[in-house]
Amino acid sequence: MATVTGSGAQPGLADCTPAPEGNPASPAHPAQSVLTDAGDLLRALAAPVRIAIVLQLRAADRCVHELVDALDVAQPLISQHLRVLKTAGVVQGERRGREVVYRLADDHLAHIVVDAVAHVQEGK
Predict the structure, then answer these.
(1) Which parts of the sequence belong to the HTH arsR-type domain (predicted)?
(2) Conformation bin of residue 114: beta by default, left when phi > 0, alpha when psi is -120 to 50
(3) 33-66 residues labelled b (16+ CB within 10 A) or e (exposed)
């Protein structure tokens, strides 16, 4: 098999030969179930309103009416997008009295969104 060499090689891509059989999955060769779950997560982040919600929650925890005001999107639509994000494990909600306050489940997801937005902005 061919091997990638030279200064243009990316870390982790220097050897294009398949991993020997019997080796556990590594970050460069994750299990199919991990790839499927990662695809599901990226699909959950793939709507512009959901990206905007993640950016808002990166700044601070918010309840639905705050997201409605900040994004100028109807409350039912915000609630629907929050449901998708919650199902995907991107956000968590905590009831405080009559309201549910949403926050990001983890900072890794905010980095994915911020990096995607920055990448697009660099190209324009």
Answers:
(1) 30-124
(2) alpha
(3) eeeeeeeebeebbeeebbbbbbebbeeebbbbeb
Look up the pTM and report it: 0.75
Q: What is the pLDDT of residue 24?
A: 57
Residue type, 107: D
CA gap 14, 8 in Å, rounded: 10
DSSP states of 13-74 as a string? -S--SPPPTTPPPBTTB--HHHHHHHHHHHHHT-SHHHHHHHHHHHHS-EEHHHHHHHHT--
- Which residues pair with residue 29 across a beta bridge? 26
Q: Which residue has the tokens 């994004």?
A: 71
Amino acid at 63: C
Domains, the chain, in order of start with CATH, read: 34-123 (1.10.10.10)
Among residues 12, 19, 14, 29, which one has the least CA distance to residue 3? 14
Tokens of 2: 């061919």
Taken in order 6, 11, 16, 17, the sign of the CA dihedral is positive
